[in-house]
Amino acid sequence: MKKYRLVITTGDTDGIGLEISVKAINKIGRIRNTTFYLVSSSKGIKISKKLKIRSVSSFKEALAIDNSHYDVIHIILRSSPAHWVRDAAIYCKKRLFSGMVTAPLSKTEIKRSGLNFIGHTEILKSISKSKNAFMAFRGPKINIVLATGHVGIKKIVIKKSSLYSAVLAAEKLRNTLPKKKRGLPIGVIGLNPHCGEDGLIGSEEKTTFLPIIERLANRGIRVEGPLVPDVIFAKSRWTSYSVIVAAYHDQGLIPFKMLHGFSDPGVHLTLGIPFVRTSVDHGTAKDIFGENKANPQSMIAAIGLALNLIRKGS
Questions:
Q1: Domain boundaries in the chain?
Q2: Contact at 8 Å (CB) between 119 and 44?
Q3: What is the chain's Cα-based Rg?
Q4: Do domains 4-130+274-312 and 134-258 have the same CATH topology?
Q5: DSSP per-residue letters across 25-79
Q6: Going residue by residue through the chain (314 aa), what tens digit of pLDDT does each one get?
Q7: Angstrom distances, CA of residue 124 to CA of 161, 167, 267
Q8: Which residues have a Cβ under 8 Å from the Cβ of 75 and sit 6 or more positions away?
Q9: Strand duo 72-76 + 34-40: pairing
Q10: Which of 35, 148, 168, 267 is 20 to 30 Å from 75 by CA-CA measure?
């Protein structure tokens, strides 16, 4: 029987990535048609005795194994966690892995590795050679796509082409949602306070947002905007949209994390690349490293969504 190969990179070695990954795998248990490829630097992991595991020391060795006999293949590496992500992405692009799930990886760790990237998204975009790669966040309450990524607020520029592609990415995300949610339009948030106040504060809403939204609507995509940033996240408003496209990082992530937190964990995913990648919606939490306090719910959700998308061929 052919089994899916889902690779899980565990992030910073002094963060909670390995802990939540192991907890998630143990909680999920055996999946008949899936093998988890768990990447870490640590040998002493506590995988459930109900799961059949094998340990190896390289990606090549792991991929050479007949995975039909194993629930977990533990890849123990001495290289930087950022290199694990890069190499896992390379094998995903080659279709040797079915998809990937990533635990938190700090910007400091990426810099220390020698890779010239600021985050997971930038690594994946480079490896996949994708023109656009968008950060997206899916949750039981709200779904967000970011038109721009890890960019300093002084450098934020919303180009027509990138906004157009961001809404198309949001449309793809909408198609993965439950039927009731799929029936709602996509909302696009403006860049400036009060959506520019007729150009008195900024002109991007008139020069960039409106033309692109009209163009997309003419294509038959249900999209509305530009929406006023300080109004859209009132409950009576955000519940009217399937996916919300935010102009920049914190415009979308602050409300997403306030709505979901740890009680209703969300999932981070990358749109625009040719393979499935999901992740948790939180950071490395180094302050509780080694204390066995980390909540694995977002990792459980990330693994579940990845497998769902893989099975659907997304």
A1: 4-130+274-312, 134-258
A2: no
A3: 20
A4: yes
A5: HHHH---TTEEEEEEES-S-----TTS-EEEESSHHHHHHS-GGG-SEEEEE--S
A6: 579 999 999 999 999 999 999 999 999 999 999 999 999 998 878 999 999 999 999 999 999 999 999 999 999 999 999 999 999 999 999 999 999 999 999 999 999 999 999 889 999 999 999 999 999 999 999 999 999 998 899 999 999 999 999 999 999 999 999 999 999 999 999 999 999 888 899 999 999 999 999 999 999 999 999 999 999 999 899 999 999 999 999 999 999 999 887 677 899 999 999 999 999 999 899 999 989 999 999 999 999 999 999 998 86
A7: 20, 20, 17
A8: 37, 38, 39, 40, 55, 56, 57, 58, 59, 61, 62
A9: parallel
A10: 267
CB atoms within 10 A of CB 52: 13
Distance CA 289, CA 82 (A): 19
What the block records as the tokens of 209 is: 């947002």
Distance of CA 27 to the CA centre of its chain: 21
Specify whether the CB–CB gap between 156 and 252 falls below 8 A: no
CA distances in angstroms from 283 to 20, 21, 165, 217, 306, listed in the order given: 12, 14, 27, 36, 19
Domain 4-130+274-312: CATH superfamily, name plus number: Isopropylmalate Dehydrogenase (3.40.718.10)
Beta strands (DSSP E) in 179-266 are: 186-189, 223-227, 243-246
Of the candidate CATH numbers 3.40.190.10, 3.40.718.10, 3.90.190.10, 2.60.120.1440, the domain formed by 134-258 belongs to 3.40.718.10
Task: Give the orientation angle of helix 120-128 with respect to helix 81-93, to 10 degrees.
Answer: 30
Of 255, 260, 269, 249, nearest in space to 295 by CA: 260
Question: CA 146 to CA 134: how far, in whole Å?
Answer: 6
Q: Assess contact for 76 and 40: CB atoms under 8 A.
A: yes
